[in-house]
Amino acid sequence: MTGLDTDHRCVLSVGNLSVGFSDREKQIRPILRNIDFRIHAGETVGIVGESGSGKSTFALAMMGYLKAGLHRVDGRVTVNGCDMFVALPQALERIRGRQVALVPQNPAQALTPSLTIGAHIREALRLHSDLVGEAIDRRAIELLAQVRLPHPDILLARYPHELSGGQQQRVAIAMALAGAPDILVLDEPTTGLDVTTQAHILMLLRELARERSMAMIYVSHDLGAIAQVAERIVVMYAGEIVLDGPTRSVLRSPHHPYAKGLLASIPRFSAASRPLPLHGRPPAPGQAGSACGFVGRCPLETEQCRTQRPDFVALSANEASRCHHISRLAEWPETRKTEAVLRDHGAAQEILKIDALSVTYARPSLIDQIRGRPSRAPKTVDDITLSLRRGEALGLVGESGSGKSTILKALAGLVPMEAQQAVLDGSQDLTRRLELRRPEELRRVQIIFQNPDESLNPRQTIFDILAQPLMLYFGLTGSDLRARCEALLEQVRLGAHYLDRFPGQLSGGEKQRVAIARAFAAEPDLVLCDEITSALDVSVQAAVLDLIETLRREKNTTIVFVSHDLAVVRSVADKIAVLYQGRLCEMGPVADVYASPSHPYTQALLGATLEPDPDLHPTLLALDVTEAGPPPKGCVFQNRCHKKLSGRCDEEIPAWALSDMQHQTRCHLIA
Amino acid sequence: MIVLSRLPSWQRRSRLIGLISDLISRPSGAVGLFLICLHLGLAIGGPWIAPYDFKAISTKALLQGPSLAHLLGTDHLGRDILSRTLLGGREAILVTSLATPLAMMWGGLVGIYFGLVGGRVDDVLMRVVDAFLSLPWILKMLVIIVTFGTGIGILIPTLAFFYGIPVIRVARAATHDVVARDFIQAAKARGHRTLTIIWREIMPNVRDALLVEGAMRWSWMLLAFSSLSFLGFGVSPPNPDWGLMISDARGFMSFAPVGVIAPVIALSTLIIGINLTADALAKALGLDRTQKAPV
Prior knowledge:
The structure holds two protein chains of two kinds. Chain A has 23 helices and 24 strands. By secondary structure, chain A is α/β, with parallel strands linked by helices. Chain A has a domain at 112-179. In chain A, a hairpin with a 2-residue loop joins β11 (313-316) and β12. Chain B is an all-alpha fold. Chain B has helices at residues 2-6, 9-25, 27-49, 81-87, 90-117, 119-134, 137-148, 152-179, 182-190, 194-230, 242-249, 258-284. In chain B, α3 (27-49) crosses α12, α6 (119-134) crosses α8 (152-179) and α10 (194-230) packs parallel to α11 (242-249). The radius of gyration of chain B is 22 Å and the shape is elongated. The two termini of chain B are 18 Å apart. Classes of the chains: A alpha/beta, B mainly alpha. At the A-B interface, β18 and α17 of A face α9 and α10 of B.
């Protein structure tokens, strides 16, 4: 693709690199094992792997850097002919920044809050270029313009907190470009950014790589993002490279069981099917032994896999894989469930009815308080009207700050809300604060949080955790209690032997299962899921989605599922509601909304969603700006809309328009 | 404690044993625990070990230097310094080891409550705590002791009260770290009572911090008790006490220094022992930030 300006000079090569740490018994525990890797000038390579696969360690090792406690066991990293682990500090100083540069994961943490953007970039230029005096300032402005930041001259005087996440990431990229490096290493550069922002950053990276014929190494857990930028994909698992090949080949016909399983576990936004989970868990970092790392999770496993670690074998000129059974990959079970997840709840009784719900975090000024008037600041969440039937699942989507979690917390009673009506099952008033709800009412609404590390008490055993709702709502004690806890664990596919463990002894997916079991222990009518899979790895995420779906079907529970990931929502929800700045934009059956989004914001969101497919590219519709709050009047999306009608959209709030029976949109363009 | 008691017995034991063996494996923990045990042993077994009666006055041997008869010499009334030093920690250790858990309990619970509930009550009461902390402790205690007397029955609650106030701050700060986490939100959303949340959700998470804090409080309380005795408000003569002994012997320090040095060494070894143990405990529990141990 960018072959025009690619000369076939190898700029960075990693030969048989092994990195490890010494444990208490002074045994070396490997984090990276026998890594072989080369990248040519102008090439873009994606390194994909789940948490603990060693991808970040690998990215840092390419800079000649290892985290404290890690040491190189074997092998070498060569940048333009210089061995990074042997080079003197002075030599490394010249290589880092000028030949290899790193863009760290979290720009908010990588930028010093007390220094201006200008100070950051000037420092990078002083260290990594030979410019002096005014040339530095000129170059700083050029660099900011190069990463497509508006008004670079004004931006130089700004502080990091005045910029949005996407802008901060652009500044971090500009700093890395200061030394005009040959190789740019990006460690999860778009993780934590909103989908629309992510799509813009990826486009920028693609253009930069083309303009500067720079080699780019893009490290990420997100195959969707990698598919957009990389020409070649390297798949890492348990500290090894298990597959290395051209993007198209890796995504279309992966020659490794793990890559195949990983691809099958990614929810697709283009297909209404549930992803297939990968069972089991990868070996803990440093625990991989002499067997194949994928043992225990692989359907093609044989005795040979358990005793002999496969070699990294070239399959063709540009593809290599680490598996004993590449020839048997055709035997892999059917990769996707084709059944549609559509269900008909038309006849079911309406269980949740919300009319004009609003939440405000702003406290009224003193004068307003005295006069008993509410705050005049725009409400955080306003005018939310929706209804759900028993057994239905509603997906609540929107970017960060759109108020999705606030709505959930309001329904759970954790945040005070106002509403004309918020009724559960015809009788229970949800506007009542937590303290005023009766135990029976509390039982019926349960919430599952995003991160199980936070939502499970680290000092309670799994038994203690599950016992809390059972003792509170059902008064269970003694052997009844224990038996019920065991049954709950069975329900979430965990054995009874987990009861006496602490959350710290469980993997991320197992912890989230416990959190789900705790919520369903109360036998609730309404379960609120707050981004419950976003802290999990993809291969685990599929299993958790599967579990939620099964429990919902078995217990006929109603679910409100909040997520920023549209593909995830598609695989679990019946109905979808799109939120922007705390206001609903569009609502309707999942299939309809995904097939024909009518609100410009929904179109922008769907357009920016990435698929692990080299042929599907995001379409960038909305402007990449971050708003601090909703506009004082008019349509909430007016500032970012590409179809804004001035005089109309900035004056009046659009009314709901029905495009068919249930699909409704709030936009002047429709009405 | 609630969590420990709910574990199967083998696991409960192994966690305690694990903690103790971790303590002993650290040099500071081993030395600290040895010093504490030594002093506890002496406090309990003192009357049987001491070569003389601590009250026995000998007018023939006043302010003598160390000799075979009196290994550490005698004081201004001719009493055996060794015997008095061996017994001098009894009352201090008894009073402080009862007052410390009391202080931790009331200070800890109040601190956790403030940290959890927050709001106006917290704002106002924390200013009261600040006001208390800004007064010199010795002044506050002297007021109580002068008013009510110096018996153990007065000293223990007084020490427990005043030393519980700074604990409020520590417990409140530790609670603030926990309260922000989702499992507290989850417990609130389930509708648990505040007391249940304190006891089941917060307590196990702040217990370690309070344990380490308690060890430090104990050593400060010992110093405070000895200071009171030094000023004549702690142990009443003729009962031996380190603070009192230092006070009595300081006039003769130039020609009979052992009378001051012996109780000073006794008191400081105990305090150093407690501090070393607290230090090792913090590291063993992973509370030491410099070690970057996971908490």
